[in-house]
Amino acid sequence: MMDGRMDEWMDGWIEKRRTGAELWQDVNGWIFREVRYITDLNKNLDGRMHAGHGRQSCGGVGRNVADALIKLGAHDTRFISVVGNDEPGTAIFQSLKGGGGTLKRSSDVSTASCTVVVDAEGECCFIVGEMEAFAAIDINLIRKYQTQLEAASIIVIDANLPAETMALTLDIASHAKIPG
């Protein structure tokens, strides 16, 4: 949104939340993130093991936006996505309380994930991503939830989705005049 439209939309959104008016948000995209911190000062990428520690979390821009909207009181938020029928998928599903009924679990894919390796100075050395699951967020899934998308006041799209999925979602948003 350009030329102050975002500020105008945000003011309207805040007013709708204050007055209890109905509001929908629809979000696409998800990931399970693992961060590994190398504590050795000398890192060599020659196959050796380095001392370190790690943590895991649910993440991804789309999932994080959906989570923030829910925490801010936008309980009608819908998270349109696909997660694997695996441990990371369960964590994401539970973190979003099912995504408003639009979060699909599938045994055909592993939940998208990435491992970030960070050195002792806090610099990212590299990221290993397993993103094949994004292909499961296809035009058939978008068509299945087209009614929810058309009712949304805003749609957030992950740019890692297949091009035809993004094109259909943008077409739906354009025809429904979202944002209004």
From TrEMBL:
Asked if the Swiss-Prot or TrEMBL record annotates the protein with the keyword Metal-binding, the reply is yes
A GO BP term here is:
phosphate-containing compound metabolic process
- Domain Carbohydrate kinase PfkB positions: 46-177
One GO molecular-function entry: metal ion binding
Output the Pfam families linked to this UniProt entry: PfkB
Name the InterPro entries for this protein.
PfkB_dom, Ribokinase-like
Q: Which UniProt keywords are listed?
A: Metal-binding
Report the superkingdom from the record: Eukaryota
Q: What is this protein called?
A: Pseudouridine-metabolizing bifunctional protein C186105
Native organism is Vespula squamosa
UniProt lineage = Eukaryota, Metazoa, Ecdysozoa, Arthropoda, Hexapoda
